[in-house]
Amino acid sequence: MEITYRLDITPTPEQVIELYTNSGLKRPTNDRERIQKMFDNANLIATAWDGELLVGVSRSITDWVWSCYLADLAVRHDYKKAGIGKKLIEMTKEKVGEQSMVLLLSVPTAMEYYPKVGFTKQESSFIINRTK
User: Fold this and answer.
1) Has residue 1 got a pLDDT over 80?
2) CATH dotted code for 3-116
3) H or E element at residue 38
4) Burial of 52 (0-12, 13-18, 19+ CB in 10 A)
5) Edge to edge, what strands does the sheet with 53-62 contain?
6) The overall pTM is greater than 0.85
7) How many angstroms separate the Cα of 70 from the Cα of each of 15, 46, 51?
8) Is the pLDDT of residue 37 over 90?
9) Residue spans per domain, the chain
10) Dihedral sign, CA of 40, 36, 45, 100?
């Protein structure tokens, strides 16, 4: 298994939907158009590939000088625990540089993962949940 990491490829909605479904990441995978818009409006996408197979993705929105919101991090089930998620986070942090923080909202099942890859848990966030 040789994984290739890329910052210059945006996966197709079909590739993303298949990856999110396989990884267990809860996103609107039944809505291709919404997935397309999620990636069209992201300005930092890091991907991991095993040949032509998308095995990991991080999708972020950033201003490049203050903050970077890591909106999605997904790794294909059979590739978990291979360091792919950690590498995608490292690529994201490297690309936004030292001036920018990387922040995220974690799904409950990943709360123990993020401290292991360099994140510090914060108690100072607020959210207005989506209605759809």
Assistant:
1) no
2) 3.40.630.30
3) helix 32-40
4) exposed
5) 3-6, 44-50, 53-62, 67-75, 101-103
6) yes
7) 19, 11, 25
8) yes
9) 3-116
10) positive
